[in-house]
Write a structure and sequence with these properties.
alpha+beta; OB fold (Dihydrolipoamide Acetyltransferase, E2P); Dihydrolipoamide Transferase; Chloramphenicol Acetyltransferase; 3 domains; 7-stranded mixed sheet; 4-stranded antiparallel sheet; 25% helix; PSBD
Length: 496
């Protein structure tokens, strides 16, 4: 009985691929899940495993051909077909019976969090044929706000990747298949011989057809392109990477092709991550929805800095965390929100929902974008508890370990642009919240104090608020109360 080998799913919006390399030739014995050929799409390289043990019969789609999804690639005869050539038979391992290939274990998308229905496969840490240990990281998924690592559910061999990098998957999708009891047989030496490039090329493998075309169009020497495909094969994305890499200035007499390649390296088009797309959409929605206005003030940080310097060593020794400025600002904001509760409220249709608690959002920059972890009931926490929560949430944010629950339910937000050197800015609201405080760089400035000019460490404060429910008087009062609490921290102790 003959078994069809067809093009697997290539990913969302990808409808065709190019047959880059056949690792087997007609008559070769193959084991189940052994790699037969490699397909190349615009974004990823897809390896096609054998669906059964047997003998490779007819190859329908030769190298260099463009094929669509589910197109017929080849036929496999179970236990039949032409015998392999003597040399190939000596070099190739015996085909493993189907029963020895191990139990197939599905790798599914893990829980993504409440209200999250899909994710994008950002990185595969393993390739088909790699041996993996149980709980070893296989790939990383990216949702609107967090990154999720996917561990191996069992020890074995990665047999098939169903969702390549860049694919969008839903919360119940299958990502890959593991062979938990066996191993994917290595391609025999004859496969390498069948795809060997001519000796004049100076390589042991042949570059992908689309890569050769791209190099010819760009005037690139194949020797100058680092291949990342199997056995060092140059793929199409390797050519793009070589063109994008910085190059030394070309001599005046450089040919036109070289000048064109140089122009191409001046720009790079990169798809926005899901996190960046979500940030862009939410910030624009905030501007379009809220009647946003910003009011400013400045605070003399002398007393806070003196108090911090006096107690920071003792504070860290007792509580195991450094005393920073964020706990002072969090406490000051909680104090001010009690007096001006509308800044801690939100609009729900035609109702205003007042919160009798403060869930403080603390904006944090990460390598992938801005996230806002939430410290619940910050108004009931001590300085030490606030500092510990901020340190722990910030660390998890940078590592991409925050869960969706940790970024929901905030009632007010603090954004500290001062850590990046910002002197003044107008922060954008984090919907559905009605207020956000912007902290900025502490800078020594001459100030008039009791009729004398003295140098003081000053910080500009910015409160952006939703003018639909917060009046100018309330916004200014809020900032004044924050300023008073920071310039005389004893007021926080006295609840003044």
């Amino acid at each position: 009985m003959s078994i069809e080998v067809r093009v697997p799913t290539l990913g969302e919006s990808v409808t065709e691929a190019t047959v880059a390399t056949w690792f087997k030739k007609p008559g070769d014995a193959v084991a189940v899940d052994e790699m037969l050929c490699e397909l190349e799409t615009d974004k990823v390289t897809v390896e096609v495993p054998s669906p059964a043990a047997g003998t490779l019969g007819e190859i329908v789609a030769a190298e260099g051909e463009t094929v669509g999804v589910d197109a017929l690639l080849a036929m496999i005869g179970e236990g039949e077909g032409a015998a392999p050539a003597p040399a190939a038979a000596a070099a190739a391992p015996a085909a493993a019976p189907a029963g020895e290939a191990g139990q197939a274990v599905d790798v599914m998308v893990p829980a993504l969090g409440e209200s999250v229905s899909e994710a994008t496969v950002s990185t595969w840490f393993k390739q088909v044929g790699d041996t993996v240990a149980q709980d070893e990281m296989l790939c990383e998924l990216e949702t609107d706000k967090v990154s999720v690592e996917v561990p191996a559910p069992a020890a074995g061999v990665l047999a098939e990747i169903l969702a390549p990098e860049g694919t969008t998957v839903d919360a119940s999708a299958k990502l890959a298949v593991l062979s938990s009891g066996g191993a994917v047989a290595a391609a025999p030496a004859s496969a390498s011989a069948a795809t060997a490039a001519p000796a004049a090329a100076g390589k042991d493998v042949e570059d992908a057809p689309s890569a050769k075309k791209a190099m010819a169009e760009a005037g690139l020497n194949p020797a100058d392109v680092q291949g990342t495909g199997r056995d060092g094969r140059v793929m199409k994305h390797d050519v793009a990477a070589a063109l994008a890499a910085p190059k030394a200035a070309a001599p005046a007499a450089a040919p036109a092709a070289a000048r064109a390649a140089g122009d191409a390296s001046r720009e790079e088009r990169v798809k926005m991550t899901r996190l960046r797309q979500t940030i862009a959409r939410r910030l624009k929605d905030s501007q379009n929805t809220a009647a946003m206005l910003t009011t400013y003030n400045e605070v003399d940080m002398t007393e806070v800095m003196a108090l911090r310097n006096e107690y920071k060593a003792e504070f860290e020794k007792k509580h195991g965390v450094r005393l920073g400025f964020m706990s002072f600002f969090t406490k000051a904001c909680c104090h001010a929100l009690k007096e001006v509760p509308e800044v801690n409220a939100e609009i729900d249709g035609t109702d205003i929902v007042y919160k009798n608690y403060v869930n403080m959002g603390v904006a944090a920059g990460t390598p992938t974008g801005l996230v806002v972890p939430v410290i619940n009931d910050a108004d009931a926490m001590s300085f030490a508890a606030i500092e510990k929560a901020i340190a722990e949430k910030g660390r998890r944010a940078r590592d991409g370990k925050l869960s969706m629950d940790e970024m929901q339910g905030g009632t007010f937000t603090i954004s500290n642009g001062g850590v990046y050197g910002s002197l003044m800015s107008s922060p954008i609201l984090n919907p559905p919240q009605s207020g956000i405080l912007g902290m900025h760089k502490i800078q020594d400035r001459p100030m008039a104090i009791n009729g004398e000019v003295v140098i003081r460490p000053m910080m500009y404060l910015a409160l952006s608020y939703d003018h639909r429910i917060v009046d100018g008087k309330g916004a200014v009062t809020f900032l004044v109360r924050v300023k008073e609490a920071l310039e005389d921290p004893r007021r926080l102790l006295m609840d003044l």
